[in-house]
Write a structure and sequence with these properties.
Chain lengths: 438, 174, 307
């Protein structure tokens, strides 16, 4: 592994109070030194040696005009392995992550077999170490086989490396099971990530319910299908004091409920995804299955409320809900095609739009894509700090480019953003000390 | 450059002559009916029937025939022809049908009209009356009554305008 | 004047003057249907494939007759007997049908948008014969033709559509068409079947049959699917007929010369009383006859559109 010197970049990490030009030295996969030229916090102030203490070769990365930020953490990724390797593998998924600026990703448990026991957990972790370009943290399922009936062995999975639990893709419809999960998980102080959706209210639905679903002749999913479950889970979090994290918030009503819950001191955190704050239900208008996602793309008012929630801190995290599918699966009748958007390659560029439009600050973006996920998951990650694993993104915020799904490193080319012109892209990512450049 | 070939008076004289010829050939109006091809032929058929009434004193049935469904160029056109009314007010079985059209050119419209007529019934015979015969036949079709033979080149356009369409009667070539 | 697309996907996608062109052309075909020889050679040598992924007798036979009367060669493919049952994708099936030489594909499918998917993937003309709960454009066209035939015009008429609006592709196509032609459209049924968001289409909503039928010119009844009962949309067919069934007493609220329509097949005693269905103001069988003429017109006009 090369040692790396990143020179003259604009280093930003709000959690460490870093905001200024300086350099970072990476040695043996760890951050060895961070120094700003003037002002800001200085970890050490000594002149830059062109051959740092190590005897290894040094790679000097000239980062003039570029931002240097912590490697991003995606709390919500579907890696599909084991079981659906034709959609994605740990190898391709982590490569897509790294190209999108993510150095740590959380693998959702809806694989085949489901990650509901420690042998699957172990498989994912080992495979990720062998083949993965970034760190993979498995999320175990709450219930056995995600059936919503019986708790999975959370404790054993936790000791094997699961950092959160979720039945993502399916709601836990039984309120008692959800209560027990929130209670039991307190032993390990891990979050329960809730896929909030009342599956009776969503029955037959494939898109947001409203005039558009009527005129397209599609079964609708009302916002209330999500909101009733958000309300239930918040009530249960209040009851149990368990750590509740609401996945992929899509509606204005959910934002309102979460804001109220936070005000009254209930331990709840929440994430949303770039597609929910970037596009609306109109993206499915041509029966475009690449815009079919669950929860569905919503209305303009929901998009605006999500942006507001990101701005005021109601929504803690921007996650991708990266859900790759095979091309043939999406080349189908809309109601038969699977839900999901391949998001790792595009999430950062789409989120930067919020900064460009003035909705959130650049610091907030880093908080929501690195610092907050680390805090919620209890990880010593998401920071530029001496001694931490070297997870660093070198970002050109001025680089304009056109999203081309055929250039994705993910196997999943299912994106409604194909052909979009966006601004801002990582030019290099350092993951576990290894440099990837584009 | 357009040149007038026939004016209102010319057309009127021609129709009077054709009316006489039809009566002469058919020995009166018995079992006779006129069927105009949409659109110009329909107006001409109407005028011929009036002339015939002036001469013989009795009405003969006049119908209109739309040939859109029978054309042989549906596969090569980029736009379908407008479909107009077909209305033949009498049974044409065993009748002497005089088909009336404004301009006879390649003969393909007449071929279509013959097929269309045959699907409506089984006439005793079919005769053809045209105001202008401009030549260039592509099918073995010969008119029984011709208003005026006009030699033309393939590229020229012969235009028949009739009062029923809202303008002055005239036949021009350009 | 010609149609702007090679496909007929829905009324939504048509301009008013395109609809007028179809209806005018259909009246030419209606004349043909009155003759002894009910067939024209217009589309001789072309091939139509009726791709029915959902069972249907009346729409398929109507299309088949229309095709035969245009001198098309006709092939019927029912999903149950085709390779679809073996797991072939819709696009693959349609590409195979195209490779057989189909110029027209008449598609009935339970998924909304299935014809739209095909139209992007094949060069043949796609005609939507009913997709999911989206549209059934030829039904709306034949309904419009029938209304014009009886009432002379559509503009300014008060037209009530009664029943399961939310799940009815017939109702949806009719709403779009009737609005384009300036009719007053009233939708009548329980709130579970006539959702509020429909109001933004510029229609009126009634839950009370007598109020909704007051002085209307046309009553369009929809077929009630019995499975909606288990879905909780209404408690029983008995209760449904009690409040939303078309009986003589209720029909008396309509104008004296009002007509009654139904796309069929009818559930007598559930949505419509027999004395109305068989009565002198019923044009239900005219709809069936006109369906052939309208479908002939659609195919004839689409044949003139080349990519």
């Amino acid at each position: 592994m090369l040692n790396i010197l990143i020179k003259n970049g604009h280093i930003v990490d709000p959690s460490e109070g870093l905001d200024g030009t300086g350099h970072i030295i990476i040695e043996n996969g760890k951050i060895k030194e961070i120094a700003l030229d003037s002002g800001g916090k200085k970890e050490k102030s000594r002149p830059i040696k062109t051959t740092p203490s190590g005897r290894k070769a040094l790679r000097v990365f000239e980062a003039h005009g570029l931002f240097v930020i912590p490697g991003l953490i995606d709390m919500h990724t579907h890696l599909r392995e084991p079981g659906y390797e034709y959609k994605e593998t740990i190898k391709t998924g982590t490569m897509a992550a790294v190209s999108g600026g993510f150095t740590n990703i959380c693998a959702m448990p809806n694989t085949n077999p489901v990650n509901d026991n420690s042998s699957v957990t172990d498989f994912i972790i080992r495979k990720a170490i062998q083949e993965g370009a970034c760190t993979v943290y498995p999320v175990g399922s709450i219930t056995k086989n995600q059936n919503g009936e019986e708790l999975a062995e959370m404790g054993i999975m936790f000791s094997e490396g699961c950092i959160a639990f979720s039945d993502d893709g399916k709601p836990v419809m039984n309120s008692l099971i959800m209560r027990r999960a929130l209670e039991y998980s307190k032993t390990y102080d891990v979050p329960i990530i809730s896929h909030c959706e009342d599956s009776n209210l969503t029955e037959g639905g494939v898109m947001n319910e409203g005039l558009l679903s009527f005129t397209m002749g599609m079964g609708g999913i009302p916002s209330e299908a999500e909101e009733t479950m958000v309300a239930r889970d918040i009530a249960l979090a209040g009851l149990t004091k368990g750590k509740l994290h609401i996945a992929h918030v899509s509606t204005a009503g959910s934002v309102r409920l979460i804001r109220q819950a936070k005000e009254s001191g209930i331990p709840v955190t929440a994430e949303t995804c770039p597609h929910y704050f970037t596009i609306t239900e109109e993206a499915v208008q041509t029966y475009n299955t690449n815009a079919k996602v669950n929860p569905p793309l919503r209305a303009r008012k929901d998009l605006e409320a999500l942006q507001e929630g990101l701005k005021d801190g109601t929504i803690d995290v921007i996650a991708t809900d990266h859900a790759p599918h095979h091309r043939d699966e999406k080349r189908m009748e809309f109601d038969r095609a699977p839900s999901g958007i391949s998001g790792l390659d595009t999430a950062l560029s789409l989120s930067l739009k919020l900064v460009q439009e003035g909705t959130i600050t650049f610091s907030q973006l880093i908080e929501k894509m690195a610092q907050n996920p680390a805090r919620i998951l209890g990880l010593k990650k998401g920071k530029l700090k001496v001694g931490h694993t070297a997870d660093v993104v070198i970002l050109d915020v001025h680089k304009e480019y056109t999203i081309r799904s055929e250039q994705f490193l993910s196997k999943g080319r299912n994106t409604p953003f194909d052909g979009w012109n966006v601004k801002g892209k990582p030019v290099a990512t350092i993951s576990k000390g290894k440099l990837y450049e584009w | 450059m357009s040149k007038e070939l026939l004016n209102k008076q010319d057309i009127d004289r021609i129709l009077a002559r054709i009316a006489h010829e039809i009566l002469e050939k058919n020995k009166g109006t018995g079992n006779l009916c006129l069927v105009g091809i949409q659109r110009g032929g329909v107006h001409l058929a109407g005028r011929l029937s009036k002339k015939i009434k002036e001469i013989e004193g009795n009405d003969i049935p006049v119908g209109s025939l739309d040939i859109a469904f029978y054309r042989d160029d549906l596969n090569i056109r980029t736009e379908q022809p407008a479909v107009r009314k077909t209305s033949v007010p009498c049974r044409i079985d065993d009748q002497k049908v005089v088909l009336v059209d404004d301009v006879l050119f390649t003969g393909r419209s007449i071929r279509a009209a013959l097929d269309a007529l045959m699907d409506i019934g089984r006439p005793a015979n079919i005769q053809l009356a045209v105001l202008i015969d401009r030549g260039h036949r592509e099918l073995p079709i010969k008119p029984d009554f011709v208003g005026k033979n006009i030699p033309t080149s393939m590229g020229e356009v012969v235009r028949v305008v009739l009062e029923e369409e809202g303008a002055k009667d005239t036949v021009t070539i350009e | 004047m010609k149609l702007s697309s090679k496909d007929l996907l829905g009324i939504k996608e048509l301009e008013k003057d395109e609809i007028t062109l179809i209806l005018d052309t259909a009246s030419g075909f209606k004349d043909v249907l009155k003759r002894d020889i009910k067939k024209v050679p217009a589309l001789r040598g072309k091939t139509a494939v009726n791709l029915f992924f959902e069972p249907s007798t009346r729409t398929r036979t109507s299309f088949e007759l229309a095709e035969k009367r245009l001198s098309l060669d006709v092939l019927n493919l029912a999903a149950t007997t085709s390779s679809v049952a073996k797991g072939e994708s819709l696009i693959d099936t349609s590409l195979n049908v195209q490779a057989l030489g189909a110029d027209f594909m008449v598609v009935r499918h339970s998924s909304s948008g299935a014809p739209h998917l095909l139209s992007r993937n094949v060069t043949a003309s796609i005609i939507n014969a009913g997709d999911g709960i989206n549209e059934h454009p030829t039904q709306a066209l034949l309904d419009a033709f029938t209304i014009q035939e009886r009432m002379g015009t559509i503009e300014g008429l008060k037209i009530a559509i009664v029943g399961d609006i939310v799940h009815s592709r017939v109702a949806k196509s009719n709403i779009y068409l009737l609005k384009k032609f300036g009719a007053e459209v009233r939708l009548i049924g329980p709130p579970t079947l006539v959702p509020e968001e429909i109001l933004s289409l510029g229609v009126k909503r009634y839950h009370d049959m007598e109020l909704g039928l007051d002085t209307v010119d046309v009553v369009m009844m929809l077929r009630i699917q019995k499975e909606r009962q288990t879905g909780g949309y209404f408690p029983s067919t008995l209760e449904y007929f009690r409040f939303w069934g078309l009986t003589s007493e209720r029909f008396a609220s309509a104008k004296k010369n009002a007509i009654v329509m139904h796309p069929g097949p009818m559930n007598r005693g559930i949505e419509i009383a027999s004395e109305i269905a068989d009565g002198s103001q019923s044009v239900i069988l005219d709809q069936v006859t006109n369906g052939i003429a309208v479908r002939m017109a659609v195919m004839f006009l689409l044949a003139g559109i080349r990519e």
